[in-house]
Amino acid sequence: MSTRLQGKIALITGAGSGIGAATARRFAEEGATVVLCGRNPAPLEAVASAIRQAGGKADCSVADVSDEQAIVCAIQAAAQRHGRLDILVNNAMAYTWGAIDSTSTADWQANFSTTVDGTFWGTRTAMVLMKAQGGGAIINMASICGLFGTPGMAGYSAAKAAVINFSRAAASEGAGSKVRCNVVVPGVIDTPATAGMLADAKARGNTEKLIPLRRIGQALEVANAILFLASDEASYITGACVPVDGGRSAELYTVLE
Predict the structure, then answer these.
(1) The sheet that has 136-141: what strands, in order across it?
(2) Catalytic annotation, pick one of 95, 156, 236, 253
(3) Contacts of 220 (CB under 8 A, 6+ apart)
(4) What backbone phi and psi angles, to 5 degrees, belong to 67?
(5) Hey, what domains does the chain have and what are their CATH numbers?
(6) Is the CB of residue 160 less than 8 Å from the CB of residue 192?
(7) Residue 142 to residue 108: CA distance in whole angstroms
(8) Cα–Cα distance for residue pair 16/43, rounded to 1 Å
(9) CA separation (Å) from 131 to 121, 127, 137?
(10) For a Cys-Cys bond, which of 91, 125, 198, 255 suits 14, CB 3.0-4.6 Å?
(11) Is 236 a catalytic residue?
């Protein structure tokens, strides 16, 4: 076990699977006490149990990030329970599919309640706590869809774009109190959220051809970027938007072989 986050208290939303779970494990490996937050207790406890069995420190907080009172109370309770909150990772998200001309208002708004509202409520709550204690690190999760338009995902793309610019504003406001806020922008990552899309070998192959590194990313690779931004190694980095996408956002077009 390393010590890059030794003594730090970190809360991660959407921590029951995928990028959130990988981040929780990496944080614990680096010495942090991790609070796993999500709607479903079973996957949270499974990840927390594995962390504890490996010698790390973890507990769970069941809360729906799209519920303002629930997420605010979860963050405040974690800080009270552990004495402080050093790191918040706003990872939970929700999305709907569909063309713009067939998207209902309810489906459109569903993209924002967790992804944007939850990130706002979490960031606001954490900033109050972190300013009072002398600093902290907030990492918000966006998506390559927030940088480029994606057919059939207008709501999700708009929500993730909102997270990116909201985080820049949060970084500007928090800097004077030593509260850093950065954004990680994953590309196509092998997680339960993409399992359906990547299950078909042809679809997976076609997706990989569009990525300069010619492969799908792994949750651990995103978690490592989050870890860096959460650590003191990134003490002079705030307001950054860090792609973890195999080079996808660097190319204007792809030459298919």
Answers:
(1) 57-62, 33-38, 9-13, 87-90, 136-141, 179-186, 241-244
(2) 156
(3) 22, 26
(4) -105, 110
(5) 9-191+219-236 (3.40.50.720)
(6) no
(7) 17
(8) 5
(9) 16, 6, 11
(10) 91
(11) no
pLDDT (0 to 100) of residue 203: 77
Q: How many CA atoms lie within 13 A of 7 on its CB side?
A: 2
**Is the four-CA dihedral 15, 18, 24, 28 of positive or negative sign?**
positive
CB atoms within 10 A of CB 53: 8
Taking only the tens place, the pLDDT of each residue in 16-69 is 999 999 999 999 999 999 999 999 999 999 999 999 999 999 999 999 999 999
Other residues' Cβ atoms within 10 Å of the Cβ of residue 54 = 12
Record the tokens describing residue 191, joined without a space. 């997680």
Q: How many CB atoms lie within 10 A of CB 204?
A: 17
- Tokens 């076990």: give the residue: 1
Question: How far from the centroid of its chain's Cα atoms is residue 128's Cα?
Answer: 20
Cβ atoms of 62 and 38 within 8 Å: the answer is yes
Sheet strands (E) in 72-203: 87-90, 136-141, 179-186, 189-190
Looking at residue 44, what is its pLDDT? 98
